[in-house]
Amino acid sequence: MFAVISDIHSNIEALTTVLGDIEKRGIKTIYCLGDVVGYGPNPKECLDLIIEKTKWCVLGNHDYAVFYEPTNFNYGAEQASFWCREVLETEEEKEQRNRRWSFLGELPMRRTLNSKPGTKSVTIDFVHASPRRPINEYIFPDDVYTNPLKVRLLFERVNYICFVGHTHMPGVFLDEPDFYLPAELGNVYPIVDGEKAIINIGSVGQPRDKDNRASYVYIDDNKVHFVRLEYDIETTMKKIMAIDRLDDFHAERLQSGR
Ligand SMILES: [Fe+2]
C-alpha cells in the first residue's frame, strides 16, 4: 500500500490536508512526482515536509527551474521561480538551507519499482511529466483524439504502469489510445494483468481540471484509488496575494481549479 502525490507547488494548506488523509488511512509509504515548489507562497515548508514524509521524489520542471533555470515558462511562473530561489537562498539557518538545496539538486528524473505480486514481476515507473521526456512533456486527455500517434509512441516507453503528474489533470490513459476521467472509473482503476496504463494522479496544490480540491492517489490491493480533498483555499490565496512578486492569477486559479 502506498500513496503518490505530485505538483504541490508550495501550497502548504493543500499538502498538510493530503498528508493528514494519507496518515488517517494508515499508509506509510509516500512517493512524490515533483513540482514541490513554484507558484505558491510556502516553498520552504513544503520542501521540509516532502523531505520528511516521502520515501523519494522525482524532479519536476518547477524544481528544475528553481535549482537550475526556468525553461519555457511564462512571465508569472518565471517570476515565481526567481522569488522561490531568493526565499531559499536567504534562509539564515545554514543547515536548513543546505538540506533544501541538496534535496532539489539531487532529485532524479525517474524512479522504478519492481514488485512481484504472484508469479510475474511487475515494473512501475514514476516520472513527473512523461515516459519519454520525464520533466517537461505534457500528455493531455485531448491527445488521445488529436494526436493518437503521440500517445502510442509514449506507450512504447511504458513497461506496464507509469505514474505521471505535470498537467494537473488526473485520469488514466490506455494504449488504444483512450483516456478515462477518475469519475468515469468510479474513482478506482484496477491494475489489470497485461494492460499498460499511464496514470495521471492530478495535483495537490494547483488542480486544473475545474475541480479545486487537492488530488492524489493511493494504491491498495492492485487498485489505484483517486482521492479529492477540500482544503483551506482562502488562506493560500491570501498569502499569494500578499506577496508582490507572486502573480494574483496564481491565487485566482486555485479558486476555480484551472
Ligand atoms: Fe506542476
Describe this structure in words.
The protein has helices spanning 12-24, 43-53, 61-67, 75-89, 94-105, 143-146, 148-156, 233-242, 249-256, and strands at 2-5, 29-32, 56-57, 110-115, 122-127, 161-164, 171-174, 178-180, 188-190, 197-200, 214-220, 223-229. The model has no long low-confidence stretch (mean pLDDT 96). α3 crosses α4 (75-89). With 258 residues, it is an alpha/beta fold. The strands form two sheets. Strands 3-2-1-11-12-9 form a six-stranded mixed beta sheet, with helices on one face. It contains nine helices and twelve strands. The two termini are 30 Å apart. 41% of the residues are buried. It binds fe (ii) ion. Residues 7, 35, 60, 62, 166, 168 line the site of fe (ii) ion.
Helix/strand layout:
Layout lengths: L1 E4 L6 H13 L4 E4 L10 H11 L2 E2 L3 H7 L7 H15 L4 H12 L4 E6 L6 E6 L15 H4 L1 H9 L4 E4 L6 E4 L3 E3 L7 E3 L6 E4 L13 E7 L2 E7 L3 H10 L6 H8 L2
Parallel strand pairs: 1-2, 2-3, 5-6, 6-10
Antiparallel strand pairs: 1-11, 4-5, 7-8, 7-10, 9-12, 11-12
* Contiguous runs where pLDDT drops below 50 for at least 5 residues: none
From the N-terminal CA to the C-terminal CA, the straight-line distance is 30 Å
Q: Hey, roughly how much beta strand do the residues contain?
A: 15-25%
What gyration radius follows from the Cα positions, in whole Å? Answer: 17 Å
Keywords:
single chain, about 260 residues, alpha/beta, 6-stranded mixed beta sheet, 9 helices, 12 strands, about 20% strand, binds fe (ii) ion
